[in-house]
Amino acid sequence: MTHQDVLDDRPGALADPGGAPVLEVTGRLTPAALEAAARGPVRVAMADGTAERVAAGHAYMLACVAEGRDIYGMTTGFGNLVGFVGRATAHEQSEGFLNFLTAGHGPDLPPEVMRATLLARVWSLAKGRSAVSPDALRTLVAVLETPFAPAVPRMGSVGASGDLIPLAYAVRAMQGQGNAYVDGVRVPAAEALDRCGISPLHLAGRDAVALVNGTSVTAAAAGLALASLARSVNTAVTLTALLADLLGSDPGFAAAPTLAAFGHPHGEDVAAGLRAMLDGTTPTGTRPLQEPYSIRCSPQLIGAAAGALDYAATVIGDDLNGINDNPLFFAEDGVVTHGGNFFSQPVAFAADAMSTVAAQLANLAERQLDLLTDTHRNSGLPPMLATEPGSQHGVVGMQIAATATVAAMRRAATPISDQSLPTNGHNQDVVPLGTQAALTALEQAGHLRWVQGALGVALRQAEYLSARGATAPACAEVLRELGAEVAPIDPDRPLDVDVQRAAALLDRLAARRAPWRGAPAGA
Predict the structure, then answer these.
(1) pLDDT band at residue 517 under the 50/70/90 scheme
(2) CA torsion, points 254, 256, 261, 263, in degrees to nearest 10?
(3) Minimal CA–CA distance to 437: which of 159, 34, 233?
């Protein structure tokens, strides 16, 4: 990712003298920017007028309270207790709010997700409609300039009224309470702040509600999932081309007239990518007239995946760049609106679609791996790609692990966005469960990356055992790079590290390719 890829609209990302990406809050926040923040320190530069806009929103909120207007989270109880009077002071109100929300459980979310979450929260709060204090926003920006990440349990959010519980843990960590990660190491939050040179967060006004009452965990996890799956679409094209070339398939399955007749532009794009990869291939002439669907229907399948991700990219992009808070403050109109922008239904639907895409792309890769190991269909390669079948076992264990992974992914692809459960005294009588949908999509993307890495190792082994090798120059170059990362399996050895190395290489190669049709820049 270049610095210029971080934002859609220029000016966007600049080169920091210290080497960290600089994210300017002027254009659209993209999944690529989330990945930059997830990886490590970034410098967030506010556009001219941002500080003034945020300060004005905060001042307007205080003026409304001074006038005696009811403001949710400032003068009232929370959730279904909104009809009761809140605490006596803003400090007591904030602390009480965070206390009752500190009720999550389960393993910690990946620190990378929480760093991306903080960036997403900055983007929403910087629009000045949440009445957050300028100091609180500055603390979030300061945290992102360091390797700090809050330690946050996975379970607790229903993605309605925001990601309340996980974001409460994030706020507590920035206050120096609970735990946090520094460079991936879990330590007490106060120690983490001290090591990173960050002053603890101090809350003013409705800061606690503004920081917590949004869907930033959901949007960040979905954005990270989208970024990974975008690369996996490109990887699927690459792996399919390698398979077809090594087996000696006729490339006619990707013929332009066929896909034009199909009528789906994404399928045409995928077929064009396959033709480019297979340019110069020499078919053996011994393959069946029609290849198995895992080759023959790959443009249609991968194209459908790309189309589904286009929909997800639009939804997630809109969510990352909207304001997901309540209430909202419009000082220029003298209006405070109480609504439901914290409701994560759009992302929930998109994340469920991404989970399905990941499961089907993994199924394709696993079936292609099966084709490669089947002596009845693999153009004379030895069974299980073993150099000496019987005394060696090639990719047996890796294939079993891939099959188990696909089975788990199919189960996880069950939609959750329509499994609403009422809660909070029927105040939240419908909930979208977007957080769980987004986190599942991110996990699915990681599993897909592993299965594609396993296929990459198998293709490298097939090339080692093949008398003809690759005949298309583009395929030969990819196999050369795979060969530099993964040694032949001769004799048997553990392959877990090799799969990770292959997956990382395929990720890098995929990032070099143009994104699918319609994808926003930086996706």
Answers:
(1) low
(2) 80
(3) 159
Q: What CA–CA distance (Å, rounded) separates 244 from 267? A: 17
For the chain, what percentages of helix, strand and coil (3-state, to nearest 5) are there?
Answer: 55, 10, 35
| 72 is annotated as an active-site residue | yes
Angle between helices 164-174 and 90-101 (to 10 degrees): 120
pTM tops 0.85: yes
State both tokens at 450.
């592993």
Query: How do residues 263-278 score in pLDDT, each as one tens digit?
Result: 999 999 999 999 999 9
Tokens at 457, concatenated: 């190792």
Of the residues 60, 72, 169, 181, only one is catalytic, namely 72
Minimal CA–CA distance to 324: which of 205, 438, 441, 212? 212
- Alpha helices by DSSP H, listed for 87-157, are 90-101, 111-125, 134-144
Helices and strands (H and E) in the chain: how many = 18, 10
User: Around 209, how many Cα atoms within 13 Å sit in the side-chain half-sphere?
Assistant: 27
Rounded Cα distance, 365 and 376, in Å: 18
| Alpha carbons 180 and 178: distance in angstroms, whole number | 7
